[in-house]
């Protein structure tokens, strides 16, 4: 049986939950298109997060890897297009590390493009009534770090798909951040199932609009 | 048995659903604190909306009246503080009427303050994990029109509580409006139940922060 | 010679300048349409602000009174439509007062509508290349307090025009608030001159779109 | 004498002006730190924009190249960190081309990092009272196209600095886009002079916070 590896993060930045793990953990053991979903929680820590992720990839040899992270302040599910080779932390990670303008992989490529069919995924989510869009930046914190590391890791395995999805706050988090948008766990869960289905079925991405003028 | 009247609107502005009626209609017949919830759909039409509302108030003599409307673009459940005596339509209503700077009730007061305990409601919603805040303006379209008309109607019935609550787009609406925030129907339903409970139990509002510097 | 009274506020909320006074003070002594502009700085204090304003009105008997205040976070010049009879302070004023849900004038009307031609003013500003819009709420802090008090004061003087205009941060303020929009002092100054000209020339407001659906 | 090449764009997307050229053209012939500023207008066209830029670089052999573009909707001057190797046009360019997910340089690196000291530039702008921040994405339209092409072009000339700066709408543009933030031409001009000065003086960038969690 083939595996789909889906990861979420532990809480960070003063939050008591991380919506990514709250939702991802609900997918543990699901069968989607005859593949088994395996989930893992990553520490919100530069370096360690990738150690945990890489170990899971080595163990499972998954067909698809989707890392999921919280993007507090975003309104919809955002499928990341690209990860860049830099750690630039606005706040410390959960071990107190705050790298500024340091390469993730010294000598590595400046960026890795996602290996998920992002346009097809956004289209399928919207058709399912889920607010979604392509994002042109995954930031420069641990999420981008994990996305870059993941794509670097699988760069020599042509058949493995992988990428990163950012999700909004949960309503219970936004209740403590007046003015912040949110999305219910049920909606996010449905979004992730769509993302897995599309990743498993879609060989090439579709050519539809999803860019940004800036 | 006492009644709680809750209204939602029909779709407007090119939408095929209105989240207010989608959610409000789910409350029909509920019993909350030994009161029966009765729901009505209002046309998104200046004048007619108030005819339907007023007839329902006359028929039911409710203890609490909560009118609910869509506020596409807002991130949370907003409890309106005040309605002002002006119709100023940015878009036509569902009958093609587009009044500009016309009083709702000629000679009526410039404004009516809500008769819901708005601070207590916001506090209770947040405690329940629902993003909510006080809003200082209900706009100048049919929502404000209904809120003003409602408060004008019940102004001489000291024991009737009433007011207006704005809610965000549903996710399925926001899926067609990239960049717009949304809220799941389940979250909005929970919010409205909290609003009804607080309105029924709370005699005076609490003195907590909820103002805006501008 | 007739007078136009224009007021700005002292800094508040941790700022070292208030853009309203920075710009308003530049208008002192200007002659616009054969009227002399007189400017006054108001303290950002509930009560005292109105004492200073009322004294200036009594002294000058102005044809037009425009009070100007800072709205940090707004993108354009906003002409306020209405002031409501409530003080509800999110932060303390400059004397440490923080009234919550207290009427400005006990027994006074729930609201006063502006006595400036707001639609004509917005149209004229936009024609001059200045970003401007009608605002449906002046908040519940000292700005709304001053607007309400001003309109209450001049309510029995049919020939006096008056109202309130909110302006964005200055660029030098926004430089310390990443993410906040701003407007140059020169642009705001041009806006205020337009507002004075329109107030002096325009007898009735024009009927053009300027409402909000919520 | 050494040259600083600064480019702006022609109008696009229905605008009649492009703030980048409006401001950049004012710098023509300036002497900053004994370098002469030469300005060029680029067509808002995939391909052609780079032909014009590359010809100017070949002709002038400049010490610093700063390309400037309009980012309607942004509130401040944003110094771009990275350009990615993809054209993905949300709207057609000025020749009607709308490439979707096409590499700018087939076989080129996935991204090029800026060769401007972006943290030092942001710090210096803020010290001068100009709202500014680091941006993690230049989009996927002609601006990103030019930034990528510029950095690709100068990638083998270790001593040439270069990068891209996005600027907000001018006030006169925002006056036609209610809700859009803007920045006065004078403020933008001051920002660009700071950027040139810092680029000429600063050898290495400073290590200060400027990242994004997402």
Automatic annotation (TrEMBL), chains A, B, C, D:
Family matches, as PROSITE patterns: PYRASE_CYS, PYRASE_GLU
Give one GO term, molecular function aspect.
Answer: pyroglutamyl-peptidase activity
Keyword Cytoplasm in record: yes
Sorted alphabetically, which InterPro entries does this protein's record hold?
Peptidase_C15 (IPR000816), Peptidase_C15-like (IPR016125), Peptidase_C15-like_sf (IPR036440), PGP-I_bact-type (IPR029762), PGPEP1_Cys_AS (IPR033694), PGPEP1_Glu_AS (IPR033693)
Main subcellular localisation: cytoplasm
The biological processes this protein is annotated with in GO are: proteolysis
UniProt GO cellular component terms: cytosol
- Residues at the active site: 80, 143, 166
Superkingdom of the organism of origin: Bacteria
Pfam families, alphabetically?
A: Peptidase_C15
| Enzyme Commission number(s) of this protein | 3.4.19.3
**What role is this protein assigned?**
Removes 5-oxoproline from various penultimate amino acid residues except L-proline.
Subunit composition and interactions: Homotetramer.
Family of the protein in this entry: Belongs to the peptidase C15 family.
Entry protein name = Pyrrolidone-carboxylate peptidase
- Organism whose genome encodes this protein: Lelliottia wanjuensis
